[in-house]
Amino acid sequence: MPPITFTDDDFKAPDPDHDDPMVISIEVAEYGIGKVLIDQGSSVNILYWKTFQRMNLSEDLIVPYNEQIVGFSGEQVDTRGYVDLRTRIGSRKDGREVRVRFLLVEANTSYNVLLGRPCLNAFGAIVSTLHLAMKFPSDRGTICTVHADQQVARQCYAAGLRITPYSRPRKQHRSEVAMTNLDPRTNTEDRLQPEGETKGIPIGSQPGQVTKIGGALSVEDEDLLKTVILENKDLFAWSSANMPGVHPDVMSHKLAIFREARPVA
User: Fold this and answer.
1) Which residues contact 153 (CB under 8 A, 6 or more apart)?
2) CB 108 within 8 A of CB 166
3) Residue 97 and residue 47: Cα distance in Å, rounded?
4) SS3 (DSSP) at 242
5) Is residue 164 classed as helix, strand or coil in its secondary structure?
6) Which of 85, 121, 189, 221 is 20 to 30 A off residue 30, Cα-Cα?
7) What domains does the chain contain, in order, with CATH numbers?
8) Mind listing the pLDDT tens digit for each residue in 129-177?
9) Residue 242, exposed/middle/buried by CB under 10 A (0-12, 13-18, 19+)?
10) The pTM is what?
């Protein structure tokens, strides 16, 4: 089998500055289906109930399945069973067809199908979200490339913001996520701390513009240290306004959001 690699030529989307998900079109049981989310974090493949109903397939194909699937925040979702359906990714000429097991889930979502790791592994697929492309070996021994639809991905994202989460009619206890620590830094307790007492040295015109030195220094060492600090006080930045001209290659901050999306409270 030829090696699977990605280059800049594999990127076909219109906007290169993106953090969009992989959303493609596939064929399931000879039905063409769009708005298919590729989710490498999912341990199951999901065919949403609304999609199954539109496919006009017999419910006799459904195999009972009483287990729940668990989301990343611990919420549990019931299933309506599962179905095994022939699934094609790629074109009729260069693609590949594999029998895939889908869990049937009733949920309010902007997607029709979610392909998780079981399907991706069955196809031997490698996904590059950077290139918005997926590659896998075809039955002909060549490498098939499937590109994501960036416009549809953004439409699904925007539509998902307006969707009311699905709630089951029967009573249930919803799991809650305690967001007690939002600091992404780790080992903050292990930071180096000064030994002994410290004293502040004013180095600016504002009251808060102070730095600290050790309180146990000798008079000579303290005077020498103060002199060095005051001679280089222009190196201290008290706000971002004191740091103009920082090149983005050195440091930049970016919010990975869909620029046309409205904020959600």
Assistant:
1) 20, 21, 22, 23
2) yes
3) 17
4) helix
5) coil
6) 121
7) 8-162 (2.40.70.10), 195-242 (no CATH)
8) 999 999 999 988 899 999 999 999 999 988 888 877 666 655 444 443 4
9) exposed
10) 0.62
